[in-house]
Amino acid sequence: MVVILKVGGLAAAADCIRAHIAHDARPWKLVHVSTLNQARLALARERVDLLLIHHQLPDGDALSAELPVAGVLQLVSIDPGFESVAAQALDQGFTDYVVEATHDGFGAVMLAQISSALRHRETTRTLHRQHGLLSAISRAQASFIQTNDNRAAFNSLLTDLLALTHSAYGFVGEVFYDSPEAPWLQVHALTNLAWDEASRKAYADADGPGMAFRKLDTLFGSALRTGEPVLTNAPAADPRAGGTPQGHPPLLAFLGIPVGPKGQLLAMVGLANRPGGYSVHQIDLLRPLLDTIGQMVVARRMEAQRAQALHVLNTTLNSMDQGLLMTDDLNMQALSGDLGARTALSMAAGCDIALHCKGDLAEMQAVAEAAGAMTPAALSRAAAALAQRRAPEAVDIAALEAEFSDLMQSDLGQPNG
Description:
Blueprint: E1 2-7, H1 11-21, E2 28-33, H2 36-45, E3 50-54, E4 56-57, E5 60-61, E6 73-78, H3 83-91, E7 96-99, H4 104-146, H5 150-165, E8 169-179, E9 182-190, H6 197-205, E10 211-213, H7 219-226, E11 230-232, E12 254-259, E13 267-272, H8 280-320, E14 326-329, H9 339-348, E15 353-355, H10 361-371, H11 376-387, H12 397-411
Parallel strand pairs: 1-2, 1-3, 3-6, 6-7, 14-15
Antiparallel strand pairs: 4-5, 8-9, 8-13, 9-10, 11-12, 12-13
């Protein structure tokens, strides 16, 4: 419902407005008071969307009135001939002005101006929200690029999430799975709501890898299990709730939003105690930022996998430094160029010995010349490799030849004997 507070002016003008809003499909309410003192009482009693204040009042005037109207649209109504007052009001930040009248058309004009002002306010708010959202996305991306500290990056995200939704507190965490049916949450950012020594210690311990939430019979656990948002404005009566610890601040409203596909969740956002509660509007508003969170978690995990792969590769290469490295036969055409060039490339790549199996003297000379003398380190590795040689085990050559003959005859489909 749109509530209009008309302060001062003609009662007949107020009646004209009431007559028109009574026939309008939208829900309207007009409250008409005569003085600034009455206006203050009315503002204390109920929420007001638009203030229509007459330029001259029994206890003051519109331009000098100090009313608690932050965020409320303000229009000044003037008597004919007081357009200069309207100009001053517009300079002071009033949205628009109207010339007070009592004829039949005044109500329709007044309603049209009010509707226009409300649409303008909503457009401005939408642009402000979109700008805030884009700024939050930009800050989130910058945080993830500039630091490897998950806590710092997610704390910045949480600050923006709370501001965008006007929530009192919340958390942001990463989702992992012990099994497909057992997701759990590692919290990277959490509003400090410490209410006793144990909770203060738990929050301080979160400076490490993050607190682990594994209890699934809770509101946030329901979001993890189902992969669907959990929205409740009456948590105490919600059957999915698992209660709050002794001394925890009251939970008046909760919104839990999982990030990622069902069964493969990446992260989760939990928000609480927004004045007036939550609706799907907040989910829609945050969707671009939530998608960004998911993308950043994937990027961070891929980065960690690459780092792990690089560590394994470096470990392998470091261990190879302790052994003798020899090429395959250089005549196998794996490398381009003549044999001398192939040998030089192999030695530059770190090989100790170049292998040439053909037995052609000219080729052998080209390979030997390109390989050059072995370095002291290569000679040491060669000596270590030779030291690993073992005496061959004794075998029955005749028995092996007979076994080989049997296998060959069996493969060729010939009878034994």
